[in-house]
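Checklist before submission:
- one chain only
- standard amino acids only
- sequence pasted in full

Submission:
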Amino acid sequence: MNKMNSFLKTSALVMFAVVIISGCTKKSDPYADYTPAREAGLISDWLTAMVDKNNDIDTTSTGLYYIVDRVGSGAKVTVGDTVTVKYIGMFMDGSVFDASAYHASSTNTVIPHFSADSTYTYIHQSPNSATLSMIKGWEEGIEVMNKGERAAFLLPSAKAYGAYGSDIIPPYTPLIFSIEVVDIK
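Returned file contents:
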């Protein structure tokens, strides 16, 4: 009986030690593959694909890439303007992570209504503002647009959520925004 108790105690201690040790080991980093080199490759692949599709790619002086789909004829967006847009935010694989339609809501329900015609309105700030309400690349991109213009922007992570990411945006993740400026006030 003593041998059995001793065996059970030893077994329990070994199992306890295994549980403790396995709990202390580092879990693998789900974002370990999200590196600057990976990002550079994604951007290069996207630019190559756009050139292969005969798109004219423009670049701002700070490295923001964009393709104008429809030229606007109205005023250009400036700091302090109240800007109404339609937009879709996508990862490089085309999956949508945000859209103006997600911000629209019906007054009759707490469930958002997802209409393709939904817009989003905000006050445009300088991309160099210390208190941006939008990401830097968005604010930079909007400044090259006129009322009525529609364009696709490729934002390197340095102009989006950088080395740390945010919520569902992994670190070092370039983003694509398709934006149409509906109104400027």
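Reviewer check: The chain has one domain: 34-184.
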